[in-house]
Amino acid sequence: MGNWRLVMEQAIKEIINDLKFMVKDEPEAESDDVKLERFKSMLEKNIQSVLSKIGVPKRFLSPKSTARLNLKSGYYFHGPVGTGKTDLAVSFLKNVILNSEPLCEYDGRYRLQDNIGLFVSVPVMLLNIRGAFKSETVEEMDLIKKYMKPEILILDDLGTEKTTDWVIQTLYVIINSRYEEDKQTVITSNYSLDEIRKNLNDKIASRIIAMTEVIEIKGIDRRSAISVVK
Where does the record place the IstB-like ATP-binding domain (predicted)? Predict the structure, then answer.
């Protein structure tokens, strides 16, 4: 267990260092406002790298959606396959990161907050957590906490996983924890919340309703016109 934690701590340090985007040889007399603008400019240039490091698949690193959404809110995007739900979620994640408040280092330079965000496919997340059962060095709860901590979490494709008591319990623990901690969460699904209520349970659907704005994405596929209806 100790070795695993050391590996995880080192990995987290490397990610944080990668996300600092510090500009070397900055003039000492440069004002805080100028340093902040330089950071924001560098962040925007490197946003694809940031998205990749927090789990966004290569296909979605350049989201096309231009929908204007409340960056302080959580969302539940649901609709048929291929209507751009994941693209919309990644576009939202990108805008939240670009508009987030950076941390100022002791030397006056800026970096992104720790645990700024995470993107994960729900079936993959569940496979990873279940894999902890077979591991001698990783505990299931350690992996579950990984999905509780991010300031913004994208849960992609909720409802495509095979439903079992373990799946329902694990999803509830993660979603309820984020609800209680008031953590921003965006969920995509092919299913309406009424269907989630039937396929999973009422508690999960209830938490999602309480912590997100529910938006239906209409359209045949991404090449068709997409209408967004609240």
Answer: 142-219
Residue 67 main-chain phi, psi, to 5 deg: -60, 140
Q: Per the confidence metrics, is the pTM higher than 0.90? A: no
**Which residues, listed in sequence order, are joined to residue 218 by a DSSP beta bridge?**
227
Q: Which residue segment(s) compose the domain that 34 sits in?
A: 2-229
Q: How many CB atoms lie within 10 A of CB 58?
A: 9
CATH number at residue 53: 3.40.50.300
The per-residue pLDDT for range 189-204, each reduced to its tens digit, is 999 999 999 999 999 9
Of 212, 170, 216, the residue nearest 195 (C-alpha) = 216
Structure tokens at 86: 């994941």
26-45 pLDDT, tens digit per residue, is 555 567 778 888 888 899 99
What are the distances in angstroms from CA 5 to CA 19, 117, 135?
A: 21, 20, 14
Backbone angles phi and psi of 119, in degrees to 5: -115, 135
Is the Cα torsion angle 54, 55, 58, 61 positive or negative in sign? negative
Residue 108 Cα distances to 29, 40, 103, 164, 190, angstroms: 11, 14, 9, 50, 45
Rounded to whole angstroms, the Cα distance separating 33 from 26 reads: 13
Kind of pairing, strands 227-229 and 213-218? Answer: antiparallel
Number of structural domains in the chain: 1
CA atoms within 13 A on the CB side of 40: 12
Provide the CA 229 distance to its chain's centre, in angstroms.
23
